[in-house]
Amino acid sequence: MKLDLSILCLSVAALVTLPPACLADPLPLSPVWQSQMPPSPDAATKITEQYGRSVARDAYFWAWPMVNIYNRRLAFQQSPKIGLMNGVLPFAPINAMAMLADYVKADQRWVACPNQDVVYGAGVAALEQTPVVVQVPDFGDRFWVYQVVDMRTDSFAQIGAMYGSRPGFYLLVGPEWKGDVPKGITKVFRARTNTAFIVPRVFMDDTASDREAIQEVISKIDMYPLGQFDGKFKEHDWRVLPTLGSPAAEGGAAETKWVFPETFVKQLPAVMADAPPMPGEEARYAQIRAVIAAAGRNPALMEAMTDEARKAEAELVEPLLQFRNWGVQLDGHWSTTNNNGDFGTDYFTRTAVAKSNILVNASNETKYFYQDLDADGGRLNGASSYRVTFPKGNTPPVDGFWSLTVYDAQHFFSPNALGRYSLGTKNKTLKFDADGSLTIYAQPMSPGNDLETNWLPVPLGDFSLYLRAYWPKTEIVDGSWVPPKVRKQ
Questions:
Q1: Structural class in CATH, domain 79-244
Q2: N or C: which end of the chain has fewer CB within 10 A?
Q3: Contact by Cβ (8 Å): 155, 362
Q4: Per-residue pLDDT tens for 343-400?
Q5: According to the UniProt entry, where is the signal peptide (predicted)?
Q6: pTM (2 decimals)?
């Protein structure tokens, strides 16, 4: 395994969380509140193995998304320069960004549930080192959104078409930053953690002309330390990035592994230092730290907690890869979530999303619908053929765009003769039925030359369907619109 799992020395004091754009000094705890805080666990107390196991099991599930992002940060730290990892994915040193110049290639395995509707970018900010400036060019009528999440995978900056964001320079700062905001900064967003993940998404039609047209726009997307800000747009030709190696072992058919039970207990203190407790989590933090301190003095306890982390991975986390095991249940066996990017204390959904399709947009930015089953409750499988028919005038109601994507059992693209993995707004040759409805054919073999433009090739084994509605309209947000049933032919 190539990934360096040495623990970052990140020291972050607990503080009262401020509104994202507020730059005032954090208020200290009042003397009365401080005096009423209960005492913390005694870290010198001997504890039983079973108690250590119970704390480790709970902590593993709770912290899984944070450790996932933490280890992705460690990987980005090893990027020697801005480029493409394995020639496929945007990869850049900390506090910098890389952009693709086309759809993501089908063979990447770093992030589950990729899409070929947008041009992606990616960058990791270490806000304890410096605030970072994010450049936003003028996208005109083109759909765009920047996903900006903290270590918990909660959004803390609203930058995108749905927010009416203006072209300009946006500043991301850490929870303790107290510097001056220079002239020329459009808006400031404060993170709750020192680690932030920034992923621009820019819609592109599946045409040669739009592939060319988008280049000038995306050339002005960038991220860099505040010290490099001069009020002028920095530009890149993202088509000429160098190919870089990968710092992490590939996961084969599955997503690259980012959470390691063998190192989880030892990594957790650094992760919690980066992500101060949310209100109400103080006791959780104190309990975990006390038990880890006890394990540091007792190798047998440390091994027991590590063993419990392995069990939690297999018994609690692994089943969440399957969409049918979680989510808000909808008609026709579809499921969704209503709190993406704003999970708060919904620890179950946060970890379920992180395991199955991490780095999702906030629900008002993108609504996601997941499907593992057909209308009769049978598992979707390439041994059969299926139809998804949108009635006339009832394709997903969006102000951005929509797409229906097929993934294999591990939530990645499966190679097919057409090199086609999704259909939707980007496809300009879709054929509507005589009654005005739109039918998409999800099946292993072509439905025939006349219908091939509506064919979504599926793999021979189990697969999933995944509907994205970017910038969803009210009917989607309030739940009055749901996708049509997936009918087996």
A1: mainly beta
A2: N
A3: yes
A4: 999 999 999 999 999 999 999 999 999 999 999 999 999 999 999 999 999 999 999 9
A5: 1-24
A6: 0.90
